[in-house]
Amino acid sequence: MENTMKAVGLYRYLPIDDPESLLDLTIPKPQATNKDLLVRVKAISVNPVDTKIRGPKDKVEEQPKILGWDAAGIVEEVGENCTLFQPGDEVFYAGAANRQGANSEFHLVDERIVGKKPSTLDFAAAASLPLTSLTAYEALFEHLGLTQNKSENVGKKLLIVNGAGGVGSVAIQLAKSIDLTVVATASRPETRDWVKKQGADFVIDHHQDFAPQLQKINMNEVDYILCLHSTELHWTAMADVIAPLGKICSIVETEKPVELGLLKDKSATFTWEFMFTKSNYQTNLITQHNFLNDIARMIDAKEIHATINQNYGPINAENLKKAHKQLESDTTIGKIVLENFA
What we know:
Blueprint lengths: L3 E10 L9 E6 L7 E11 L1 H7 L2 E10 L4 E8 L11 E4 L12 E5 L3 E3 L6 H5 L2 H14 L13 E5 L4 H12 L3 E5 L3 H10 L3 E3 L5 H7 L5 E6 L3 H11 E9 L18 E4 L4 H5 L3 H16 L7 E4 L5 H12 L6 E5 L3
Parallel strand pairs: 9-10, 9-12, 10-11, 12-13, 13-14, 15-16
Antiparallel strand pairs: 1-2, 1-4, 3-5, 3-7, 3-16, 5-6, 6-8
């Protein structure tokens, strides 16, 4: 049995209430070659991308599809061209959407998109970080063009739409670590409390127009906007409050066209962030290794903290179904993790 491993996967893409939407499986254990690490997975977390990929469609897989793009574990083997890690290293990473995911006892991942696990966190807390922290980090520092030089951020204002989700929870902390003024949106008492706990200076409601709410806190405009929910729904409100020469970044695909012309008069910039672009197109991979190591450094220095909020227990189909169902309710606060294979 040494050449097999436990995993949770699917053959058909089904609603989460279907008994076959996620299955407990035994599959071959892979081997590390080239620049791949073979990681013994200790903990995973679940993200909206998992539910979107699993969502109902006609496709049927001949070999099981394994989901899961957030993991922490221990390097078991290294490929012959690896230079960054060695067996026994504790790591965390989000992986690549065009490869098998990490909902398995062992997982292959390119070492260039892997970081050293924060030494001050256990595996469960570490697994809550990679996808959301990479997304937030790339959005703020690559796409919005922010600098870690705090003196350049004095007086600059960032609006985060949907601050209580996984990415928002990290983005608030990263923005506060470089002295930005952060306005986060949240609509329920528990989510408002959560974003304040992450460090948001002000909280407004995304179910209401942004401009009058910002005016009540003496803001007529914001320099940057990070949109983490319903891009087209908030498009007009964002265009209304973005400052001249300001920048808007979104991570949420549009379901309908948006009027890009609303940004022209202000010469405002719109940009996308998609964490899997680099692995999908095999470009700038090493930046994700560097970014994750910086995140780990910030965690260990207590500049930011992990956003784990619920631990659903062992990694199996039953618990993963619960996690997917919770995510699909669109009411998740922070991150859901699972750890160890029972």
